[in-house]
Amino acid sequence: MPPSSDTSTNTYPETVENRTLDELAIGDSAELVRVLGQEDIELFAVMSGDVNPAHLDAAYADKTRFHHVVAHGMWGGALISAVLGTRLPGPGTIYTDQSLHFKRPVAIGDSITTRVTVSEIDRESGRVILDCSCTNQHGAVVIEGRAEVLAPREKISRPVTALPTVRLHKPGARFATLAEKAAALDPMPTAVVHPCDALSLTGALQAEAAGLITPLWVGPRDKIEATAQDAGVTLDAAQIIDAPHSHAAAEAAVALVREGRAEALMKGKLHTDELLDAVLDRAQGLRTERRLSHVFALDVPDHDRLLFITDAAINIAPDLPTLADIVQNALDLAIALGIETPRAAILSAVETVTSKLPSTLLAASICKMHDRGQITGGLVDGPLAFDNAISPEAVAAKGIESEVAGRADILVAPNLESGNMIAKQLIHLAKAEAAGVALGARVPIMLTSRADSAAARLASAALARLLAAAQPLKPAG
């Protein structure tokens, strides 16, 4: 029988079929071609537990002899196993021995051809020896060796089992980028309001350690010091501003801003209403001509950008002037974070304007205000349903022509209930990471939830620091 060959690219066949011991001949070969991607390296590290920085840390890898990230050696070995188990001899093969020699590194983007060739056959025992090689796109051998298998004696042909979709997400990566950018600025004096639980205290301490804030601890001194002691940290006594209770702490924190001693507020263990009552006090608060609103920044796995949801925490049923400020606040934040032309989608249940849905009338009015320069920055469109705002496929299916649809950075909810549900669904079902900040006051307010992690508080501090750098202290309204 003359030698035969089998080739494959990155795609999987619909069926796998073996070559039995009786069908094999010296010189038979099979191969597959795979291009190494960053995700291949990361997935192999997750699966194997091999977190050698030579494979995962570009800064470290640059100092090695190869000067770049390289694949795990056994990634190539796994390709050899794939050829043996699916092509030659194929299903039913029992892998008994392997020797490999690693000749060259494999870099991201390399196209690796893995080939096995039958060199010896013992038909009595069923033992088969195959020469194995992996070569790159330049024809250079990166791995070579020999494999010993027991070849199948019965013919097997099976449909390929459907594989699960694997998506890799690095928790905190996008927020870490923002924190790194914010850390290049001077730390921001921040009044941390009533930090009387471990989470709010340690979140602020992490923000301080990251170079984002210089905290002023505002609240009952004895409770703050006890919380610090329980957390195993020591606070500078000069940075503690004593206030008898949470309501008084909110008032004292606002006063620090008015005195020029603080440039931001961070919510601790107190109700949001307590803090906002002090912020919105007409005589002694931090009002401006702009309505106060809240923005969630969400890092959603599988989504290609940060999503900003507004308003899901402060304004219950915004009228047109309030909604206009909500949109403007969100656009200002996105621009401060470095999004040159943020796209804001004004949400409703449909993408057409109808008097039956008041939210569509508000959306249309907001768009016209943007057209006339009453709202500035970025691009604004609406009404848009949620799917039309974020899904290019939904936009194509409905034939919507828009510079925002399918690519929105900002999702503007018609009311607090819907905005809150959108944000919480993404957090709890899509495993989005969230940070939050309130805008429209004289200074940014890190309005985190009591359930938020210390990491979320750190991300909120990064948002606030970048916003403060882009928008100096606002005049009183």
Descriptive account of the structure:
The protein has 477 residues and is α/β, with parallel strands linked by helices. 34% of the residues lie in helices and 22% in strands. The protein has 2 domains: 15-159, Hotdog Thioesterase (Thiol Ester Dehydrase, Chain A); 173-470, Isopropylmalate Dehydrogenase (3-Layer(aba) Sandwich), CATH 3.40.718.10. It has helices at 38-48, 53-56, 58-61, 73-86, 173-183, 198-209, 221-231, 246-258, 272-279, 320-336, 358-371, 386-390, 392-398, 416-428, 454-470, and strands at residues 15-17, 29-35, 94-102, 111-122, 127-135, 141-150, 157-159, 188-193, 213-219, 240-242, 264-267, 293-299, 307-310, 343-347, 379-384, 410-412, 433-439, 445-446. Strand 9, helix 7 and strand 10 (240-242) form a beta-alpha-beta unit. The longest helix is centred in the last third of the chain and has 17 residues, at 320-336. The model has no long low-confidence stretch (mean pLDDT 92).
What's the assembly state of these chains?
single chain
CATH class assignment of the largest domain: Alpha Beta
- Rough shape? elongated
Cα(first) to Cα(last) distance is: 90 Å
The Cα radius of gyration reads 30 Å
For the record, the CATH architecture of the largest domain stands as: 3-Layer(aba) Sandwich
